[in-house]
Specification:
The complex is a heterodimer of chains A (486) and B (95). Chain A has a domain of 253 residues: Amidase signature (AS) domain (Amidase signature (AS) enzymes). Chain A is built from 16 helices and 11 strands. An 11-stranded mixed sheet of chain A has the order 1-3-2-4-6-5-10-11-9-7-8, with helices on both faces. Chain A starts with 7 loop residues before the first helix and ends in an 11-residue tail after the last helix. Chain B has 3 helices and 2 strands. Chain B starts with a helix and ends in a 7-residue tail after the last strand. The chains are: A alpha/beta (486), B mainly alpha (95). At the A-B interface, helix 10, helix 11, helix 12, helix 13 and helix 14 of A face helix 1 and helix 2 of B.
């Protein structure tokens, strides 16, 4: 096996046995990026020198016997998580030259473990999109079929994992932005419970929905990264002081005693690709074979989640993005006369179309005369969606579903049809609105050879149970072992 | 049309965005379609339902008012598009 193909756990074992150094591993990953970046376009910034410096430091620590599972492991970080001294653009022209003066809390935690940051991964601008086509710089290509999208918004992170251009990665998920690209690229992705992981230093899109989480080559690696990034942070008042378990401890338990729920509304959702529903049905059967009990349940407000989300998320975004005014940081159009003209021109030139579309939609929903009809109504529907899940989890431990209704579509296919693109988020959005954890794990391939993901959702702070179900399924199948050829 | 061109112009003004005629047209159509879809929410009876703004109930997070080290002026200004003598420079505000 080539070094860049290793998982975190495999690489850690070789480092521990002194068979490889972090510098060798980091060099191998950087060489791999050199070879395939022209095809995949997974990165906005590759941090060659900084990464090799970090690898040298890691090797020094390792030689002193001072290391943990992540020491010396090369990671890709979605380009909306602040990295001190390393450009963080959110894939937006408005932040093209922004170099954060501080590290996000998750980055501080990774650095404390001695992890190596190889680069900043491409994404939809400000995480708004499901395809990474809305990047202000370039679209990312799906390693399984370079003509297709990798999903989004964490498309760069997912493609980098699938193509061996990093060993592990972090993304962020506001409506499916970790799980959907994980599904399209055949990798593992976890959106933790809202408040499980600090958002300090995560550039805000929709503050009541955003969460940082891992994208990895397998479930074990997901548990390893969750152990490091989780926990309360005084710098994020919405992070929750709930004890963090050792997530790798959930890898030892079987599925006896686990009840999985299948929402009946999901099977009647229109437009599901038969390849996807077949793969998910087989996955559910497999999980039942492994000892879990299956029950049917109901999430009656499923048909309204997309509409509620596309009021709430743009509303929060329009407020969060008001800070980009060309004064304190970022792009400024210097040719404009007075202050207001400068704001307007800076924002219009700095933001891409999808971002402007959502700012308009959000500002409209919040504006005088429309607030009750849109934001108010959507927030009430959100309560009903949360109650649906509360009731569902009285009868089961986890809920299984597809991640997306179809496999990855072709680049350019949906770019001028925002509503159809939004509707493809139907299965992932609920977890963000309800604040519950959700995970995507590979469960098959379409007839065209494109990856399909199984979504596992659970109760607040029950990431361990998701990892347990995902690991048992993964170990009984070999979808995660298949690699794209290109 | 669910949202008129005039409304798009009004909202763009509130959001401090400039738009040419073609973009206003395009957004009026696209956002109109999205709002028509959003109107399906009116089919749900929400009489008496408490709205949710956060899925996890939040409590006020208090901390001691201790003085801590900050970025310092230079690094706080490092990303400013225009600066002078430790200040952000903005275009003239009052005529």
């Amino acid at each position: 096996m080539k070094l860049h193909e290793l998982t975190i756990q495999q690489a850690h074992r070789l480092i521990k046995q002194k068979k490889i150094s972090s510098q060798e591993l980091t060099r191998a990953v950087l060489d791999r990026i050199d070879d395939v970046e022209k095809n995949v376009d997974a990165y906005i910034t590759v941090a060659d020198e900084m990464a090799m410096d970090q690898a040298r430091l890691a090797d020094k620590a390792i030689s002193k016997g001072n290391f943990s599972t992540l020491t010396g492991i090369p990671l890709a970080i979605k380009d909306l998580i602040c990295t001190k001294g390393l450009r963080t653009t959110c894939a937006s022209r408005i932040l093209e030259n922004f170099v954060p003066p501080y590290d996000a809390t998750v980055i501080e935690k990774l650095k404390k473990e001695g992890a190596v940051i190889v680069g900043k991964a491409n994404m939809d601008e400000f995480a708004m999109g499901s395809s990474t086509e809305n990047s202000g710089f370039k679209p990312t290509h799906n390693p399984w079929d370079l003509m297709r999208i990798p999903g989004g918004s964490s498309g760069g992170s997912a493609a980098a994992i699938a193509a061996g251009m990093c060993i592990g990665s972090l993304g962020s998920d506001t409506g499916g932005s970790i799980r959907q690209p994980a599904s399209h690229c055949g990798v593992v992705g976890m959106k933790p419970t809202y408040g499980r992981v600090s958002r300090f230093g995560l550039v805000a899109f929709a503050s009541s929905l955003d969460q940082i989480g891992p994208l990895t080559k397998d479930v074990t690696d997901c548990a390893i990264l969750m152990n490091v990034i989780s926990g309360h942070d005084p710098a994020d008042s919405t992070s929750v002081p709930v004890d963090v378990p050792d997530y790798t401890s959930f890898l030892n338990d079987g599925l006896k005693g686990i009840v999985v729920g299948i929402p009946k509304e999901y099977s009647t959702t229109k437009g599901i690709d038969p390849d996807v529903s077949d793969a998910v049905r087989r996955a559910v059967d497999k999980i039942e074979d492994l000892g879990a009990e299956c029950v049917e349940l109901s999430l009656p407000h499923t048909e309204h989640v997309v509409a509620a989300y596309y009021v709430i998320a743009p509303s929060e975004a329009s407020s969060n993005l008001a800070r980009y005014d060309g004064v304190k940081y970022g792009y400024r159009d210097k040719n404009k006369g007075n202050l207001i003209e400068m704001y307007r021109s800076t924002r219009s030139k700095g933001f891409g179309q999808e971002v402007q579309r959502r700012i308009i939609l959000g500002t409209y929903s919040l504006s005088a005369g429309y607030y009750d009809a849109y934001y108010g109504k959507a927030s009430q529907i959100r309560t009903l969606i949360i109650e649906d899940f509360k009731k569902a989890f009285e009868t089961c431990h986890v809920i299984l579903s597809p991640v997306t209704p179809s496999t990855a579509f072709k680049i350019g296919e949906m770019i001028d049809d925002p509503l159809t693109m939004y509707l493809s988020d139907i299965f992932t959005i609920s977890a963000n609105l309800a604040g519950i954890p959700g995970m995507s794990v590979p469960c098959g391939f379409s007839s065209a050879g494109l990856p399909i993901g199984l979504q596992i959702m659970g109760k607040h702070f029950n990431e361990g149970t998701l990892i347990r179900v995902a690991y048992n399924f993964e170990q009984a199948t070999d979808f995660h072992k298949k690699k794209p050829k290109f | 049309m669910k949202i008129t061109k005039e409304e798009v112009i009004h909202v763009a003004n509130l959001a401090r965005l400039d738009m040419d005629e073609a973009l206003i047209d395009k957004f009026a159509k696209q956002i109109g379609t999205i709002l028509e879809y959003v109107d399906t929410l009116n089919r749900v009876d929400t009489e008496g339902v408490t709205p949710t703004s956060h899925a996890i109930s939040l409590t006020n997070a208090f901390r001691k008012d201790d003085v801590k080290e900050d970025f310092g002026k230079d690094s706080a200004l490092a990303n400013a598009p225009e600066k002078e003598d430790g200040n952000f420079i903005v275009p003239k505000i009052i005529g």
